[in-house]
UniProtKB/TrEMBL annotation:
The gene is yvcK. The keyword Disulfide bond does not apply. The keyword Ribonucleoprotein does not apply. Belongs to the gluconeogenesis factor family. Residues 7-18 have a biased composition (Basic and acidic residues). One of its GO terms (biological process) is regulation of cell shape. Required for morphogenesis under gluconeogenic growth conditions. GO terms for molecular function: LPPG:FO 2-phospho-L-lactate transferase activity. This is Putative gluconeogenesis factor.
Length: 344
């Protein structure tokens, strides 16, 4: 079944900072959102308007920039995607906007602090103060403390208790050998290597899942996958064995929010339905209840609907894109689409 785009009207400008929780609910459903980076930032910016019971489960495979430096120097989980998730959960009042800007701020010096994000340093400092950076207890406690400081509308958890590396199978990484498949290690390398990504795995292959993340998934009413970098932000959750089992067996219903455009370096030639086919290949037992896409970027709704049905779900087309033409979700529109899905 495909819902028409006009079933999700645009949210008036004056309502964009408000909440749009399902009718009859004072708190909203229990929602777990999966991903990392800018995609998860978009979904959390929408979901905090929908529910007060929100948990982000974040990928911890970043090996570049400030996160990569802290990971290599201190042996900690890369904090960058965790920081971005916390920033997305900040409110729209002065307190929330100020702390969001503080934790996202990067130093512009030419010294050792160059390009370090303030929030990354704050998170790692709390990890060290609360029992030693890298210990399971300090990791979650530190994130909870930062969330309290920011007034975050939800909780942020890592998907695993140890840092990990993504390994991608890439066809055509060497332009001189377009048919050759090579293994590329590291999130940054996976995103930047030319060619077509065929699949991913993790090193270590069986990392310990975060116990609090497993509990949140098992208790959830809804689980939201995407939007985001498909191979480096969304699919890694399904390669952590304990987390993958929880995601496939949980009583929750599942939503996949598709990207508005292919991700350069990862999914350059992907259609919306190709994203779902890759998802199914990486998690054959995963049942999907709803796939949400922007009708303005779907060239072949019938083909997408067929791919959605193969996952056991239904397709909802809605106007969720920003007005500026960029491949970016407008939080209030995405929130409006999600609240209607959660209410059905």
């Amino acid at each position: 079944m495909t819902s028409a785009a006009n079933e999700h009207p645009r949210v008036p400008d004056e309502e964009r900072n408000g909440t749009v929780k399902p009718s009859g609910s004072t708190e909203g459903p229990k929602v777990v959102a999966l991903g990392g980076g800018h995609g998860l930032y978009a979904s959390l910016s929408a979901l905090r308007r929908v529910t007060d019971r929100l948990t982000a489960v974040v990928t911890v495979a970043d090996d570049g920039g400030s996160s990569g430096r802290l990971r290599r120097e201190l042996g900690v989980l890369p904090p960058g995607d965790l920081r971005m998730a916390l920033a997305a959960l900040c409110g729209d009042d002065e307190w929330g906007q100020t702390w969001r800007d503080v934790v996202q701020h990067r130093f512009g010096s030419e010294g050792d602090l160059k390009d370090h994000a303030v929030g990354n340093l704050l998170i790692v400092a709390l990890w060290e103060l609360l029992g030693g950076a890298g210990t399971a207890g300090s990791t979650v406690a530190g994130l909870d403390w930062v969330g309290r400081l920011l007034g975050a509308h939800g909780r942020v958890l890592p998907m695993a208790a140890v840092p990990m590396d993504i390994v991608a199978e890439v066809r055509g990484a060497d332009p001189a050998r377009p048919g050759e498949v090579t293994r590329v290690k590291g999130q940054v390398a996976c995103a930047k290597t030319p060619g077509s990504v065929l699949g991913i795995s993790l090193v270590p292959a069986d990392p310990p899942a975060c116990p609090e993340a497993l509990a949140a998934v098992e208790d959830a009413d809804w689980i939201v996958f995407g939007p985001g970098s498909w191979f480096t932000s969304v699919l890694p959750h399904l390669k952590v064995p304990a987390l993958a089992r929880a995601l496939t067996t949980a009583r929750a219903r599942r939503v996949v929010a598709l990207n508005l455009a292919p991700q350069p370096g990862e999914t350059d030639d992907f259609s919306p339905q190709t994203h779902l086919e890759v998802l199914q290949a990486h998690a054959p037992d995963l049942r999907v209840d709803v796939v949400l896409a922007d009708g303005g970027v779907v060239d072949d709704p019938a083909a997408l609907d067929k791919a959605v049905q193969a996952l056991g779900g239904r397709l909802v087309l809605a106007d969720v894109a920003a007005d500026d033409g960029s491949p970016r979700h407008e939080p209030a529109r995405l929130a409006q689409a999600l609240v209607q899905i959660f209410s059905e």
